Amino acid sequence: MKTYSLLSALCIFVLFSCGNPTEQKSKKENLRERIQTFEDSLLQLQNNSQNAGQVTSLHQIELINRLLAYNRSFPKDSFSADCLFKVHMIYDQLRATKEAIAYGDTLL
Fold this sequence. Notes:
Layout: H1 2-17, H2 21-47, H3 57-73, H4 78-93, H5 97-107
Helix pairs in contact: 2-3, 3-4, 4-5
């Protein structure tokens, strides 16, 4: 019984994951918009002298996760290269040299 329910859940997942291209496009635009919004909010925090200390490495790691999610989801998109470059620069800013070099090499 467990096997049957697991198999049926897997089939349902496969059916829903094979969406049409318009859904794929909206997913791409949605992820890109979320990245842009997060970048804008971080920039506003950094530009405001009173809140400049509130931008933590956790905020930057969240941005890295969003950028890498876009890159993994849409590797052939031109914005993916921008995402990798931004990941490289954020790791460099965080002084995580190994990661910064690894993502810099990925761009080449």
